[in-house]
Amino acid sequence: MPKHFVLDTNVLLHNADSISSFADNTVVLPMSVIEELDRFKSHSDELGRNARRVIRQLDRLREKGRLAEGVPLETGGMVKIYPEKGQVTDPGLDLAVADNRILAVAYTLLQQGHKVIFVSKDINARLKADALGLEVMDFEKQKVNIDELYSGQRELTLAGRLIDQLYQDGSLTLEGLGLHPNEFLFLVDEADQKHSALARAATPDSVARLRFQEERIWNIRPRSKEQRMAFELLLDPEVKLVTMVGQAGTGKTLLALAAGLEGVLGSNSYDRLLVSRPIIPLGKDLGYMPGDKDEKLSHWMQPVFDNLVYLMRDGHQDQQEPESLRLKVDRLLRDHTVEMEALTYIRGRSISRQFVIVDEAQNLTPHEIKTIVSRAGEGTKMVLTGDPYQIDNPYLDSSSNGLTYAVERLKMLPLHGHITLKRSERSDLAAAAADYL
Length: 437
Known about the structure:
InterPro entries: P-loop_NTPase (IPR027417), PhoH (IPR003714), PhoH2-like (IPR051451), PIN-like_dom_sf (IPR029060), PIN_dom (IPR002716)
Pfam families: PhoH, PIN_4
Domain PIN: 3-127
Shape: globular
Protein name: PhoH family protein
GO molecular function: ATP binding
């Protein structure tokens, strides 16, 4: 029996192409969904853009037939708009609420004998649908299994002589590994756990010693093997996109900024360090803020500013006044050597010869990540950092955000490298909070 997929509004706002994602089945859009799209279409954010795209798609389909009766899709399926007034069976919900009217459409189709599946990214809506006896699902396209997310590294126990061979020859062949490009291997001697080595994939079945052996990058040194792996990717100009995932305090932003400063001020590989992050607050929003763009942005970029101040220390912390460190950072910003930009202003740009860091990327949709990465011009390197378990965007979760989607989709490309940072290095207190709270 052909299936009827009743879509909630949030599915269309999450992915404007979701209408054509259900093969040869019927996609049903209740009238309340069209009304909600109309409210979102004037927004200037990603939700507004998706609402407008969906509305334009439906208008093109309208020219091919009557949407109330159903219009064929190229996938072999059909899309139809369901007029609710006088046509829905009351499932016992308050129909003054738009979400309940959408559920009523799904419930009515079920009562008519159709095989109905209600699709929503709203957990509460899925719970209510399940209580009504409806089959429910989240929108699975562009989702990854967070429990099986590619970590960028493996651990392998083997004979000690092979580790010695790696140190001696600089490379080692290990048949049958099937390594991804830029994947790391932590080799451990089966007879002596302290005899170990870090290696990086050269081919699917061979590894090589790490190329960058610097002990200190812009006044910081790696404190774990994962941070050492991160520096290997961040310093390699051949790796154009680096993704770093880890909980709070693992050093994602600090490592990226250190590598960026080294590339801009040390090796002169890039003209500018560009740092950006989504403007999504933790907790209740502060609302309107006075001042120009830079003054408004400074509040959201304070975590980045704090890390820059830390990196500007020269190792003699007791002899440096906080004011002098801030002056150094202010000079970098004033000279546009370091630039902080809201993601709102990145759309439409072509960014060449810049080291770009997008912090808190877990709060971006897959489409937003695609938009940002596609801004990269010649000589540009991009770094995406974030914690998939710390999401403030109500339409995303650990499996559907753009950061984890990019990790899985790009892991086969030589120009991409990924590492998962596991241990908090900020402080003992931060590590305890991450592990126990």
